Amino acid sequence: MAKAPTFSLIILIFIAISLPTNSKEFPTKGEMRRSQQLTHFLFYFHYHLRGNETSVLVVAQAPTTNTYRTRFGEVQVVDIRLTEGPNLSSRTLGRAQGLFTYADVRETGLLMVYNYFFTEGRYNGSTLNVMGRYPPRSDNIEMAVIGGSGHLRGARGYVRVRELVNDLERGIDIDEHHVSVIFPSPLLDI
Ligand SMILES: *[C@@H]1O[C@H](CO)[C@@H](O)[C@H](O)[C@H]1NC(C)=O
Ligand SMILES: *[C@@H]1O[C@H](CO)[C@@H](O)[C@H](O)[C@H]1NC(C)=O
Ligand SMILES: *[C@@H]1O[C@H](CO)[C@@H](O)[C@H](O)[C@H]1NC(C)=O
To answer: Are 105 and 119 in contact, with CB atoms under 8 Å apart?
Structure first.
């Protein structure tokens, strides 16, 4: 008998607490009007570990890194050219600048944290911020776009990567990057 009122009181308190929170999940009129643009980018990524197009510096490794087949512990700083087509001589659209860390002990897997910094056209000066796991020679490479700046402010989405060239001997890797993002329309985002 004594338990029943306590129980309904708890339910009442629960409803009282949860109501305002629930109502916030519905967009306000202003929020509904903010449209999201879905945009796709396709470009090519030229990783050169050596030679006159070098775009990678190995900046750190542990004394034991070389004992791992997977280069576990190595950190690279990269500034990689992004081009419109797969050929290095094709038009430059921007750079991919950031850090690659060999972060997997057992199979080669990198943690990539970098920005696409666009230097051409409508998105000149804008960035997309990427973070994710990159397992070389995998059919399924996908990383998250966790933000953006400039015209791409507030972007969210993902990158799918297809390796076209993975030449360890020459230290060259050419990847096709398919980027899909949504971001609030800058025209409506006043
Ligand atoms: C790098 O060298 C290749 C051949 O040796 C040449 O075709 C290319 O233009 C050079 N690139 C730069 C940026 O100097
Ligand atoms: C890249 O373009 C240059 C000059 O246009 C051409 O000589 C070369 O064969 C092309 N390379 C590839 C892999 O298509
Ligand atoms: C991109 O923006 C920079 C800085 O505003 C400017 O110097 C450059 O000319 C622009 N490039 C293009 C292709 O519009």
So the answer is: no
Q: Whose CA is nearest to atom 1 of ligand 3?
A: 124
Atom of ligand 1 nearest to the CA of 51: 1
Which residues line the pocket of ligand 2, CB cutoff 6 A?
A: 87, 89
Tens-place pLDDT, residues 48-80 = 999 888 999 999 999 999 999 999 999 999 999
Distance, CA of 143 to CA of 84 (rounded, Å): 20
CB of 54 shorter than 6 A to ligand 1 = no
Query: Residue 40: what pLDDT?
Result: 95
Residue owning tokens 């190995």:
58
**CB contact at 8 A, 136 and 152:** no
Confidence band of 106 (pLDDT split at 50, 70, 90): very high
User: Per DSSP, which regions of 61-184 are E strands?
Assistant: 75-83, 92-102, 110-118, 127-134, 141-149, 156-167, 172-184
Backbone angles phi, psi at 2, to 5 degrees: -70, -25
Which of 87, 90, 176, when mutated, tests ligand 2's pocket best, judged by the most ligand atoms within 8 Å of its CB?
Answer: 87
- 92 forms beta bridges with 83
* Band (29; pLDDT cuts 50, 70, 90): very low
Question: Scanning the structure block, which residue is given the tokens 């659209």?
Answer: 93
Ligand nearest to the CA of 51: 1
